Amino acid sequence: MTLNLKKRVTVITYVLSLSGLAIVSSIVEILNISTDSSVPFILFRLLFLMLSVVLIAFNIQNVKLINSIDGLLFVAFVLMYTLRILLDTVFFTTPLRLPSYNYILFAYGVCFIPFIAFRFSQIKLFKREIVIALLVILLIASVFVLISVLDKIQSQEFRNGRLSNDKFSPIFLGHLGASLFVMSLYCFFSKLIDGNIYVKLVSILGIVVGMIVVIMAASRGPILSLIIVAAVYMFYYSSKKFFIYLFCVFAFGFIFSGEIFSFIDVSGSSAVRRLERMFDGEDESGSIRLDEWDGAIDQFVDSPLIGNSLEEQKYHFYPHNIYLEGFMSTGVIGGMPFIGLLLMAMYRAFKHIQYSSEYTWVALLFIQYAIASFFSGAIYSNGPYWYFMASVFSIGLPTRLVDSRIIFKRRLLKMYSRF
Question: Which residues form the O-antigen ligase-related domain (predicted)?
Fold first, then answer.
């Protein structure tokens, strides 16, 4: 009974981590609930936090942060970031964009407490259930999003040619589509789901719907992260079947390229135009973002030890790069543990992809959000980045890599004993 309950809570928590807010947003839009009402979103975040706490309680015997390097780095950063929040909201009157209490509530309620829940979740016991549930619910959430903005598509009322609604930005919705695409790509080729024709069919549909959402959202961060993640997966996945399917996809895209670009143009999506402006250096939003990065660097230089502020002070916004933000807000003392966590998680993620482990999907999703965090998001609200970083640490190193290291050490000891 306890194991079944733990499985349900784990699966539901993983599913809601990526698709929950999109489903709530779509329901609010479809039911015409007042856009001024934040009650549905507050209730959802409370539910997600409660699930995270329950997950921690289920695995309390394993929750030992200071017994691992990643746990120590996490604690070090959280302490410095908490100090920064207190300095900016309690001890000093630093001008901030949001009410003071929002920063501590978001940091702990959206990121830090769920990080602990995901870090010590028993994902290995329920990996197949989580993968299938994520695939199906991401697909449903993406379809809900498309339905909820169908009237805007028909009336050409895109916000600058980008799919969005009054609650969520094109960036958020673009990553929803990118995550669906990544999960669908993994499930289509995964040996974990091998032989299930229904999952294969859902995966094909997910690839199509995910790509449509990404194109309609027309946000560069999700597009670039999706391209890089797909390229990484293609580089390491050497299956002959994979390249046959890949050739078919490119052939299909080439044959129907005219229809595809016509669809993008007719739909009103500005994806192509935004990418063209980015490469031509004519993108105004990109220039503003570079100014924010410069401001973040200047603020770090002004106070390199403990940081300067939660937000970049010229635009009074987060700098749309959480790695710069880490140094800007917590200085070297907090920034180094933060980057240390990133590097450790990246190493493990790439090893899982290299060895084609059963947790490649975790690695791919983490890389997607890690790349996206170079262009958007804030430390205190970038939930998926924290969740899947924690998941990468939870699954450990690939079994084949660990076994090869053990064999190598035994060989060294054997050689040493001869002398």
Answer: 206-338
H/E stretch holding 3 reads helix 2-30
Pseudo-torsion of CA 251, 239, 227, 209, nearest 10°? 70
Amino acid at 237: Y
Predicted confidence (pLDDT) per residue in 208-220, tens digit: 889 888 888 778 7
3-state secondary structure of 33: coil
Q: Phi and psi at residue 159, in whole multiples of 5°?
A: -80, 100
pLDDT tops 90 at residue 4: no
The torsion angles phi and psi of 162, rounded to 5 degrees, stand at -130, 135
**Exposure string (b/e) for 300-336, b if CB count within 10 Å is 16 or more?**
beeeeeebbbbbbbeeeebbbbbbbbbbbbbbebbbb
Query: Residue 360 in 3-state DSSP?
Result: helix
225 versus 402: the higher-pLDDT residue is 225
Task: Please give the sequence-ordered ranges of beta strands (E in DSSP) within 187-245, or none if there are none.
Answer: none
312 forms bridges with which residues in the sheet?
317
The amino acid present at 76, given as its one-letter code, is A
| Burial (CB count within 10 angstroms: exposed 0-12, middle 13-18, buried 19+), residue 113 | middle
Q: What is the pLDDT of residues 80-136, one digit of tens each?
A: 999 999 999 988 878 888 888 899 999 999 999 999 999 988 888 888 889 999 999
Nearest to 167 by CA among 41, 46, 267, 316: 41
Write the DSSP symbol of residue 312. B
Distance CA 248, CA 204 (A): 13
DSSP letter assigned to residue 320: S
Helix (H) or strand (E) holding 38: none
CA dist., res. 369 & res. 118, Å (int): 16
